[in-house]
Amino acid sequence: MDIQFGTLQHEEIKAAADIAARAYQDYDYVTLYFPDAEERRRGLQAFMNCLTKTNFGRADMLAARQDGRLVARATLEAPGYQKPSLLQYILHGGLRIYLAANWHRANGFMAMDEAACKPCHDYQQAGQNVWYLSMIEVEPSVQGQGIGTKFLAYLEDYVREHGGKEFILFTNSRDNLAWYTKRGYELFHECVIEHDGRKIGSWSLRKMLRKE
């Protein structure tokens, strides 16, 4: 299996957003706020399109390709990353989220997402040479083939090459928690997210990146 890694190209923005939307379709983090599958699909598509377009050229966006086809994508926030303004999100399609999904559920989801990210943002700001892996997704149709493991290793090498000493992320999946733990990540914060009578965990993880 020949996998090529590199930076995400402008012409791949839509494909990258599509992969992210498909990858999160059945994720508890999303179903908690959007139990209806069709609304979830529409909302995720609008949300990921906006997020990918807004962060392109601002964050470090990397890609994995198999035979020239995009199969995984990631967004890394380097030290000093500047969060986009509300206007920048609007200019890149933010209002379409409210056309695709119920505004109350959409607002609740985005507020929850902001809160779940906060431990990583706080940790990054308090440290030095800390990089934040804000998003990583593998195309669902090719999951289970080892692409995610190889891609994560590439991301870690990328961060090392750019002077990073520590890599952080969060997940709301126990399976993902175990997966990252197996690959040397350790827990530095955990909490419970509750909505409409349902609860899910949120785990923030870190890994020291030693030179190889």
Structure write-up:
The protein is of the alpha+beta class and 212 residues long. The protein has a single domain (3-208), classed as Gcn5-related N-acetyltransferase (GNAT) (Aminopeptidase). It contains eight helices and seven strands. The protein has a seven-stranded mixed sheet with strand order 1-2-3-4-5-7-6, with helices on both faces. Helix 1 (13-23) runs antiparallel to helix 3 (37-55). The longest helix is centred in the middle third of the chain and has 24 residues, at 103-126. The chain starts with a strand and ends with a strand. The mean pLDDT is 95.
Bin the helical content.
40-55%
Straight-line distance between termini: 24 Å
Please give the order of strands in the largest beta sheet.
Answer: 1-2-3-4-5-7-6
Number of strands: 7
The CATH topology assignment is Aminopeptidase
CATH superfamily: Gcn5-related N-acetyltransferase (GNAT)
The figure for the number of domains is: 1
Q: What's the level 1 CATH class?
A: Alpha Beta
Please give the count of helices: 8
Question: Any chance you could write out the topology, listing elements then pairs?
Answer:
Blueprint: E1 3-7, H1 13-23, H2 28-31, H3 37-55, E2 60-66, E3 69-77, H4 86-91, H5 96-100, H6 103-126, E4 130-138, H7 147-161, E5 166-171, H8 174-182, E6 186-195, E7 198-208
Parallel strand pairs: 4-5
Antiparallel strand pairs: 1-2, 2-3, 3-4, 5-7, 6-7
Helix pairs in contact: 1-3
